[in-house]
Amino acid sequence: MKSIIICMAIAATTLAACNNSNNKTAENKSSGTDTAQAKPQAENVTATTPSVADTKATVSIKEIVTAYLQLKNAFAKDNTNDAATAGTSLESAFKTFDKTALSADQKKAFEDVEDDAREHAEHIGKNGGNIAHQREHFVMLSKDMADLIKTFGNGGQTLYKDFCPMANDGKGAIWISEVKEIKNPYLGSKMPTCGTMKEEMK
Amino acid sequence: MRRIVKKILLVLLVVFIAIQFIQPARNASNQVLPNDISKLVKIPDSVQVLLKNACYDCHSNNTSYPWYVNIQPMGWLMAKHIKEGKAVLNFSDFGSYTNRRQISKLKSIVNQIKDDEMPLSSYKWMHKNARLSKEGKDLIIDWMNKTADSLSANN
Known about the structure:
The complex is a heterodimer.
Chain A: H1 2-21, H2 24-29, H3 34-37, H4 42-45, H5 55-58, H6 62-76, H7 80-96, H8 104-126, H9 131-152, E1 159-164, E2 173-177, E3 196-201
Antiparallel strand pairs in A: 1-2, 1-3
Helix pairs in contact in A: 6-7, 6-9, 7-8, 8-9
Chain B: H1 2-19, H2 37-40, H3 45-54, H4 56-59, H5 74-88, H6 99-114, H7 121-126, H8 134-153
Helix pairs in contact in B: 3-8, 6-8
């Protein structure tokens, strides 16, 4: 009888352990990206006296923009694993963004984008190996980023809004770039220069 | 040797019986909540039926359970799938998403169906009703795209 009880206990623990092991892999990835966000948030220090009229100068979304551009460049090189890493850093850039300096309206505008963009970034981070699926989310993420930059400025560097009519199954899609020349993140090496610059985001 | 095998089988049986008593809570609100997608946009019956059969078991607050939910660990697996499914998309709570997110969700659904990622193949294997025909897919995709456009126009 005693041995039966012991066996039961072992079986129960094994069952429980099986259940938990599944979700670990995705979480482990995020630990490697810490260095990317470790930079001090010097930009936000100046934001102690926020004036509503002058959003772009007081709040900087530089870390978010940097992580997005990393992601965009990974896609331009057809590199699904780098894209996954950049997606995860973008997600944490959103997470660590300091919202305390934002006015109520700004906060609302930021959270509207954050809510959606974080999910896309997270998804891209978790789907290394499936670049087609990652790029589907990048279509929507890029639109979010364009809206975010419109409200909060370019984070200190001139950015360009590009458009490729062939991306997104022929429906067309935009992306944000830090360089004037076209480097298409949707088609990558297949058609690296497909697209046109639509807007300079100063 | 034979005695050990017998013992092991007995233990497994005891464990199997024991876990039957651990029943997860059911996902069944049995009502249409104010945030349900059908309160936000008009869904044609033809689309509604497909959504109900192919999506709602894991992406709404009302799962239509098969008999084997009562047998563990099947019920546990189902509960886990439903929890994960609802976390990323819940048609019963669609109205609580921001406008931007609603549009994103609809576009993501189109992508998932087009890429044959959803419904999950393991789910389709057990649920004949959830298998979408080419026409069914087109019907959903078309409606999702149109709805996404109308939601964008509203803002």
